[in-house]
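tool_call predict_complex ligand=iron/sulfur cluster
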Amino acid sequence: MMESFYDITLNVHRYDPDTDKRWIDTYQVKAGRIMRFVDVLRKVNDEQDATLAWGSSCEHGQCGSCSMKINGKPLLSCELLVENAVHYFDTTTFTIEPLDVAPVIRDLVIDTDKAYGRVDKVKPYIIKPKPLGEKGEEHQISPEELERYVDATRCINCFCCASACISSHHNFLGPNAMLAAIVRVMDPREQEKQSRFDTLYSENGIYRCHSSQACSFVCPKEIDVAHFIALAKNGEIKPA
Ligand code: SF4
Ligand code: SF4
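tool_result ok
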């Protein structure tokens, strides 16, 4: 019979910046089967420990601010239902840790300014837009052109892929920053390509990737990040 509630155990990694102390707290929670992990953490705040810090915003899988590692897997905690977690990990005990792509500010909250620093390096916007038509007509991108890179535009910079990435070089741009550069190279509206190629093919760029595909495996937006990196490695990212 399907359970209505699960008695789950959370082992949560804590960090207090005032004392620079790290420890693990264990919480026992009676959790409804369709509660999400953000709901579970809020229940812990309400009923057991108001000091536990974690982040979230939209809680609909669109902003990427509730990402964390649960039993070692980077994911969006707003998307993981208790019942699915019990079945996926085959346990009712969950270890919850912050992502390891930037320093921890407190408990499960990381310094996103530092994490975004890598994305900012690739200028995740159109630097030099193609001029509009003579009469101001907007650009038209054919469905075939768009099809080549539209998946990559769904990235929400949750940093799950960067956390899962096995390339340990500390200056490596990481998968989502590379994806942000690749998608602008493939966008026919962008005219500034060379500086993007310089970044992508620099010593901190795509050749640090080991093609493990861990990034694709964890991406909550189901973007095959490793596929786009492979296109860049093979010199196939020019617009159609
Ligand atoms: S590529 Fe996927 S996992 Fe990586 S930051 Fe973007 S949405 Fe998150
Ligand atoms: S495929 Fe490359 S970028 Fe993706 S996780 Fe593996 S090493 Fe990192």
